[in-house]
């Protein structure tokens, strides 16, 4: 797509219902002429004109406000026209058709924001945050998306990018003087600069992971042997009988998902099949899905019992790195044990009863903390592709360090070039059309 579109697009940007206000938004070069025809005179920029919207024959469509935002001081960077009418879909549709009759075409999903990106009004991370803000399922998620839309995340990316380029310049300069290359590469300033970039990256990765949780919700996979009380726990947390609770082992054969909003924090709980070796074909498939669930989880919540927990801890052995581990010793009501919790060697231990609900508040609080609750004003939202890109940058920086250690300046420089590219993909300095298509295609129409 050209950076400066030659056509004009239009869409219903908001239609909240019969009683509310609906908006038709138009963007592109045809807007000034269209605005003049609709208003009957040249509109004043950024001024709300109350007017009658009429069809080509002069018949009244609706009465409402007309606003003209001349390029480049507009959302898309192009001329924009907004027509605010009564929030009737029928009237808005007529208004939209009127605009199309005056030279606009229907916009694709996300096309306004895509144009804003292509015209340099937003970078890619900010554009994605617009969609995340609209789709936010929790207050914390919406707040974080707003921060990213305001550029908080992008500025951090740019800061690390700046340090990375500085390092690259140092090393490229050393390569340009091959006879002195080894000495140059051994310069402690290079090592210091590399340490600086890696520290900045590690900090940003932690923040982005938290941002991903705020955005997507914390993904909790409930694991454990059959009959430990996983389904009962899911039901207790969800507050209704979602999973089938059964005293016969092996009932939960598929993965059940529950979305919860805990005090403004989004959680996705997945109740997996009991992780045990089984002959049953269907149950085996359930166990396979349970393992798959763990690969995409932020938290593995092991449900076990006082008698079984020592053996069950082995279920943590196959967890991918970075997954938070929580052990819930269930059924304390059977032994009359008190509810309690503590942290030990990166594992959070809780004693509770899914049946009586005792100890579950401590679990809720812990999950909220892991989800990023109380992470403060500066918390920004992120997407999985951002986290993956940052992890990729980390790999390239590790290779850079390895190459520098053996004095291979050219290879170190190449790793840095790739690190820079991976980082640039976040804000859209380097992007493929496929990626842009996937990102903007997931927006709603009119945004
Ligand atoms: P799952 O196979 O791990 O999903 O286990 P279920 O949730 O189906 O529970 C298995 C059995 O244990 C059921 O009879 C539950 O009522 C019982 N159960 C679950 N949690 C508790 C608990 O905290 N206390 C007691 N006494 N029974 C429980």
Keywords:
447 residues; alpha/beta; Gyrase A, domain 2; Four Helix Bundle (Hemerythrin (Met), subunit A); Rossmann fold; 3 domains; seven-stranded mixed beta sheet; six-stranded mixed beta sheet; binds guanosine-5'-diphosphate
Explain this structure.
- The protein has 447 residues and is an alpha/beta fold.
- The chain has three domains: 3-123, Probable tRNA modification gtpase trme, domain 1 (Gyrase A, domain 2, 2-Layer Sandwich); 134-214 and 380-427, tRNA modification GTPase MnmE domain 2 (Four Helix Bundle (Hemerythrin (Met), subunit A), Up-down Bundle); 218-370, Rossmann fold, CATH 3.40.50.
- Helices cover 46% and strands 19% of the residues.
- The protein has helices at residues 31-39, 89-101, 111-118, 124-135, 139-149, 152-175, 181-185, 188-216, 230-238, 281-295, 309-312, 332-335, 360-370, 384-405, 409-427, 433-441; strands at 8-14, 21-27, 49-54, 60-69, 80-86, 104-106, 218-223, 256-262, 265-271, 299-305, 324-330, 340-344, 347-351.
- The strands form two sheets. Strands 8-9-7-10-11-13-12 form a seven-stranded mixed sheet, sandwiched between helices. Strands 3-4-5-2-1-6 form a six-stranded mixed sheet.
- It starts with 7 loop residues before the first strand and ends in a 6-residue tail after the last helix.
- The structure holds guanosine-5'-diphosphate.
- Guanosine-5'-diphosphate is lined by residues 224, 226-232, 245-247, 251-252, 274, 330-331, 333-334, 353-355.
